[in-house]
Write a structure and sequence with these properties.
With 480 residues, the protein is an alpha/beta fold. The chain contains 17 helices and 21 strands. The strands form 4 sheets. Strands 3-2-1-4-5-6 form a 6-stranded parallel sheet, with helices on both faces. A 6-stranded parallel sheet has the order 14-13-12-15-16-17, with helices on both faces. The radius of gyration is 23 Å and the shape is globular. The two termini are 14 Å apart.
């Protein structure tokens, strides 16, 4: 694919890096010449130092032959207007825009929802934007998924299935410490799959003779209701979290608080969230910005909202923050999130969740005791790449510190694997099919070697990033 990226910030450069590693033709544009010199030294792609909102610049970058335009500048307005401008001349090019203003995002979604019949035809979407990515929603969704599991760890969920992938850390002396992968089924009698193993040296797709050791992090695929059994096997336990403090009254904080307070869409929730909703006095919001505090107090009148600096030891002591069961740091100051979460964990807070910039910072955060670290940049890049992979790939999730991906895919009628048994096409050590759902079925299942591949199969596949092109061949072209 030929992809043009406008905006060479952290997200833009990470997106370009991943697309280049998959052998895509990438052009990146930014008006800052110093930034572009730095990018040119790091990435093997065309780099243009110019304003990306200029149609002449986009044409110089080759938009006439491009498959997609991704707008990632710091300005929502520039991103949206540039997509609209490009769409008037090149409507066949897929346009993706990052938008940080919640009002823009919400109004666009409402417009599409209210005029669904029009947009399902040949009518172009608002502003010519095929996919609008809202980072705060992506981050809040990840935090809320962790909340549903009592903040034990990051959790990857899939739509329309009870199965999910949860990283589980093996404690020393637990039943899993020293066990072989091939022996795991003797420990538990529920459907599951070991997706990956992560240790100090590497992350990898395991085989039967892989030996599990203390401090290994295992990616377990199982049904939500069975995850507690795996936590017990690993030596971990879900704590009873009754007192929760949310630091950050921005949009991410509001989306998380909405979930806890159940003021929006009704969700199937855990016992933990049910308890919080019955005992709202045990949920507090903290922010040092007076305007944000006022907005939070108006939006959540039953919740105590403190105007305070969470780094102020006097406030921590006065409100006895160290006695809380869970601290969620959801500000856009990612370094402060890490420091505050680690410090409060060290003085008594049972569980901590914090928002960080990238998977690299997430690894650092976990290494110093933070329970759940949400890398916002990676969640945004995953969302964008999911839109770029074509109709066969419906979603992309980065796992295991960024080394592996889990793809949600549809097997094309042009796939060369149709009619074959899974055991005859498997490539151990390269990719692993986790789940399968037949076209006329409602339920996903963990396939075995005798499962037959058929057109329309909905698959969840774990794969090394550098091997995604092979999976694309496996899936077949969709004939767009």
């Amino acid at each position: 694919m030929k992809i043009i990226i406008v905006g060479a910030g952290l997200t833009g450069t990470e997106l370009a890096k991943r697309l280049i590693s998959e052998k895509n033709d990438v052009t990146i544009i930014d008006s800052n010449e110093d930034v572009m010199r730095h990018v040119a030294n790091r990435l093997d792609c065309m780099c243009i130092a110019d304003n990306g909102n200029n149609l002449e610049t986009l044409e110089q970058a080759g938009i006439a032959k491009a498959d997609a335009l991704v707008m990632l500048t710091e300005s929502d307005e520039v991103n949206m207007i540039t997509c609209s401008l490009a769409d008037t001349v090149y409507p066949e090019v897929t346009k993706i825009a990052r938008v940080r203003n919640y009002d823009y995002y919400l109004e666009t979604r409402k417009t599409i929802s209210q005029h669904a019949d029009s947009f399902s035809g040949e009518h172009r979407p608002p502003y010519g934007i095929d996919y609008m990515v809202y980072p705060d929603q992506e981050a809040a969704d990840a935090i809320n998924q962790a909340l549903e599991h009592g903040a034990v760890t990051e959790v990857l969920t899939f739509e329309n299935t009870e199965f999910e992938v949860m990283p589980v850390t093996v404690e020393e002396g637990s039943k899993l410490d020293g066990a072989l992968v091939q022996d795991l089924r003797g420990f538990i009698d529920v459907p599951f799959l070991l997706v990956y193993v992560e240790n100090n040296e590497r992350s990898f797709l395991p085989h039967g003779s892989t030996k599990i050791a203390a401090e290994d992090r295992l990616g377990i695929l199982a049904k939500k209701n069975d995850m507690k059994k795996f936590l017990e096997l690993s030596g971990s336990h879900m704590s009873n979290l009754k007192k929760v403090a949310l630091v950050g009254a921005g949009q991410i904080g509001f989306l998380v608080a909405d979930n806890i307070q159940n003021t929006k869409d009704s969700l199937k929730v855990s016992n933990f969230l049910s308890i919080l909703r019955r005992q709202r006095k045990n949920f507090v919001i903290i922010d040092k910005n007076e305007q944000k505090v006022k907005q939070a107090a108006e939006r959540f009148p039953s919740v105590p909202v403190f105007k305070a600096d969470i780094t102020d030891e006097g406030f921590i002591e006065e409100e006895n923050i160290a006695s809380y069961d869970l601290l969620i740091c959801a500000t856009h100051n990612h370094e402060q999130n890490i420091v505050v979460a680690a410090y409060l964990k060290s003085i008594g807070v049972k569980k901590t969740i914090c928002l960080v910039a990238s998977s690299g910072y997430a690894e650092i955060a976990r290494s110093i005791g933070i329970d759940v670290a949400i890398p916002i940049k990676d969640t945004v890049v995953d969302a964008i790449i999911g839109h770029l992979r074509g109709k066969s790939v419906t979603a992309v999730h980065t796992v295991s510190d960024g080394e592996l991906e889990i793809l949600e895919c549809i097997l094309s009628e042009n796939s060369p694997q149709l009619g074959k048994l899974l055991k005859d096409v498997a490539e151990p050590g390269h990719f692993l099919i986790l789940l399968m759902k037949k076209q006329n079925s409602q339920d996903f299942f963990i396939p075995d070697g005798n499962s037959v591949l058929e057109a329309g199969d909905n698959l969840k596949i774990a794969v090394y990033k550098e091997y995604t092109s092979r999976v694309a061949e496996f899936l077949g072209k969709t004939g767009e």
